[in-house]
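WP5 quarterly update. Target: Cystinosin homolog. Source organism: Elaeophora elaphi. Length: 299 aa.
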Amino acid sequence: MVRMTPAISIHVQPQEVAVAVGEDKTIEFYTLNNLPSPVDITLMRSDLFDATPHIFQLDNQTRSANIVITGLQITSHSVLEIEECNLTNPIGECPFNNIESAFVTVKVIHSKLLSIGVVLTGWIYFFAWSISFYPQIILNFTRKSVVGLNFDFLLLNIIGFICYAVYNVLMYFDPYIQEIYEHNHPHSLIPVLFNDVVFATHALLACLITAFQCFLYERGDQRISYTCWGLATVFGLFAGVMLMLTIMGIMNALHHIMGLSYIKMAVTMCKYFPQVKACYEKKIKLKFKVKSFRKVRQN
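C-alpha cells (predicted):
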C-alpha cells in the first residue's frame, strides 16, 4: 500500500496591501501543516517598498512569520513574492506546493487620506447607481402606468445585468473559475469584490421589478421593437453557443463568463439609444401638437 505524502502549503494574509510612502504595514506568512524540517524562505527585493525581514524561517514550533512592508516609491501595482525556499536540516527542496500563490500585491500611495477619499468616492458611486433604479419604479407605482418608459431599454438592461450578475457571482464564489483565472493571470487578485456582486444582483432585481410593472400597469401602445428583439436574439445565441462550447470542453468556464461580460459591454454601448430616440420623438410630437393648437386658436 502506497502512503500518499500530504500536501504542504504556505499562505499569506492579507494578499493586498496599500501603504503610504514611509508608512509601515505588517503581513503574515504562515502554514497550517507539519513541516518535515525547518524551512528557510527568502523574499524578492524591490526598490518600490521594503520587506523586513526579507529572510525568515518556518518550523513546527514557529509556523508563521510577520513581515513589515514599508512604502518607498509611489506605485499602483507591485508584487512581494517568494524568491527562494529550501529545507535546512536536512537540506532539501521546498516542501510547499503553492509557492506561486503565496504573494502580496503592494500599492504605495501618496497619503492615507487620499486613499480613504478614493474608497469613499467608490462607495458613493456604488450607492448612487443603486439608488438610481428606484425613481422609475416609484414613478410607475404612483402613476399606475409605464407610459414613457422605453421597453427596448428595459429589455436590454435586463440582458446586460443578467450577464453582469452571472459574471460577478461565479467569479467571486466559484473556486474552479478562480483557479483558472489565477493560472492565466499569475500575481493578480480576483477582479470582483463583494460590493460588485451586491450591485449586480440588486440591479437585476430592480430591472425585473420594473419589467413586472409593465405587465400590471397601463402601457399604451408601447411594444418591444423588432430591432431590439433582433439584438436580444444575437446576444442569446452568442451566450448559448459559448455555453455549448464550455459543456463540450472546447472552452473553459472562465472564457464563458468573460464572453458574458462582453455582452454586458455591448448592451451598455447601445441600451440608451432607444430611450433617447423615444424622448426625442415624443418631443417632436409635442411640438407638432402645440403648433397645431396655436393655428386652431389663430383661426
